[in-house]
């Protein structure tokens, strides 16, 4: 017989693709996590992962077990929630794409909490895939994330498109190029650049500059978009990012031919929820649908 903590270890490895990252996720050491996975494999009588020096891959048995593990933990979560319902506060479990500016999230959540006295908001920040995994397993109720063309969840989910956000160049406002109305790729040929390693169009951006025979000098790479913006303001280099990222000392300029954008919206979990929680999500969706589309950001 396996234990619930082993299922959590298993799904953490599936979501992160790494035993090391999974151990960090569930707050245990890597040997402890590996021992838990081994016990789970023994209990099931199958091998769940193929391990190499750099990557971890699900076996065929492991792939089949993912949905079962998610379903078990979801049912446990529902049971726990039901037991706590009488004494628990209103809770909104919200996933937020990590490349959405904190200012946008604040702009949405601060007034919504005033509309819902006593509301507790549990936030999860992650990549598109991490958020999708949590939606599918019912560990978050709703997510503010990118809606891809023809968006389809692993489970049928309700979605709401909120606004479109274009990508452009962010450069220090004191830089000579900041005086231009728009930039040509060759303007950036000799400029130091900052790479946002979690950017959803990182490969497309690299290909764009390569196609224009422009190879800016990489001076800084970061997973933190707000920090990237601060380094831009400090004059360390330029970067490309969604227009919604704003900061004093940073100019936003369109780049000729760099015609990328993204649609941000809400995605609901399709796992069953209580009527009270469904009503809360509906109110949150209506609130976001009224507030966020009013936000517009032009390059300046």
Number of helices, where a helix is a run of at least 4 consecutive DSSP H or I residues = 9
CA radius of gyration is 22 Å
Distance between the termini: 61 Å
Order of helices and strands: HHHEEHEHEHEEEHEHEEEH
Low-pLDDT ranges: none
Fourth-level CATH superfamily of the largest domain: Periplasmic binding protein-like II
| Architecture per CATH nomenclature, i.e. the level-2 architecture of the largest domain | 3-Layer(aba) Sandwich
Helix residue percentage: 40-55%
CATH class of the largest domain equals Alpha Beta
- Total domain modules: 3
Q: Care to count the β-strands?
A: 11
Computed structural class: alpha/beta
Largest beta-sheet details: 7 strands, mixed
Based on Cα principal axes, name the global outline.
Answer: globular
β-strand percent reads 15-25%
What is the CATH third-level topology name of the largest domain?
A: D-Maltodextrin-Binding Protein, domain 2
Average per-residue pLDDT, rounded, comes to 90
